[in-house]
Amino acid sequence: MVTINVFHLGITDEDLKGAELAIVPGDPARVERIARLMDNPVHLHSVREYTTWRAEIAGKPVIVCSTGIGGPSTSIAVEELSQLGIRTFLRVGTTGSIQKDIPAGDMIVTNGSVRLDGASTHFAPLEFPAVANFECTQALVESVRAAEMPCHIGITASSDTFYPGQERYDTRTGHVIRQFRGSMEEWQSLGVLNYEMESATLLTMCAALGLRAGCVAAVIVNRTSQEIPDESKIAACEATAIKVVVDAAARLLK
Ligand SMILES: O=P(O)(O)O[C@H]1O[C@H](CO)[C@@H](O)[C@H]1O
Ligand SMILES: O=c1cc[nH]c(=O)[nH]1
Q1: Which residues line ligand 1 (CB under 6 A)?
Q2: Looking at residues 23-51, what average pLDDT do you find?
Q3: Is the pLDDT of residue 54 over 90?
């Protein structure tokens, strides 16, 4: 058998030990914490924004690999993990809610994303929906409910930029292009739940490539009342989302 190498991640198909499911957080610092909630965690490689660990759930291998921030780096991680044999991707992230009734600490499961990114257009035209896989969504929802956390299921606005695309005005110049001025209010009125930066790319490319993907995020700020998250609460929000995603992986592997 010929070993499969990939351009960026610095791992091969042999490192996966047959894993077909990957948990993909944005932040590399989250990877080890996720892997250590499973059995036999092993660090495989770290390069740029990509840190990869392998662990096991009930004897089945699972890969945990960070995507970095945004669509372009996410598309590389997903493409290369898929080249190595991964077929199911569970994103676990942080997010800013834009609906008044979704406070920091709650969990959001994305069932579809507004494609405010560029990378997804390299996989499918904008008319194609960024839709989550039903089984992944179901597993994530069951896991949030099992954790007895408030679970919001719905549409996420997924933006290439943290600032203008999520209608944060440049503090020095006040600049945000016309396209995004008033956009948060428009998304709110359309029932969009939250902002983050990877789900549009992840869900579109997985749907286009015949892969399964789902996305859960911990709300760390509610944009209707606050701009800067409460630093002391972020770790607890992330810890819950991490437990949820590992539980969802276990459900999908059963
Ligand atoms: O916490 P992660 O997974 O990085 O997700 C969110 O946080 C980053 C922005 O601060 C973006 O990547 C956004 O999607
Ligand atoms: O408001 C937020 C919070 C986290 N991540 C985002 O992309 N936006």
Answers
A1: 25-27, 69, 93-94, 162, 196-198
A2: 98
A3: yes
Closest ligand 2 atom to residue 196 Cα is 7
Name the residue among 123, 140, 138 with its Cα closest to residue 207.
123
Does domain 13-253 fall under CATH 3.40.50.1580? My reply is yes
pLDDT tens column, 172-184:
999 999 999 999 9
Neighbours of 89 (CB within 10 A): 28
- Catalytic hit among 36, 122, 168, 251: 168
Best CA proximity match to 206, nearest among 97, 71, 109, 108:
71
Tell me the C-alpha distance between 193 and 71, whole Å: 19
ipTM of this complex prediction, to 2 decimal places:
0.99
Which residue from 117, 109, 12 is spatially nearest to 73, judged by alpha carbons?
117
Residue 13 contacts by C-beta under 8 Å, 6 or more apart in sequence? 3, 4, 84, 85
What global pTM score does this model have?
Answer: 0.98
The three-point CA angle 107-28-194 to 5° equals: 30
135 pLDDT tier (thresholds 50, 70, 90): very high
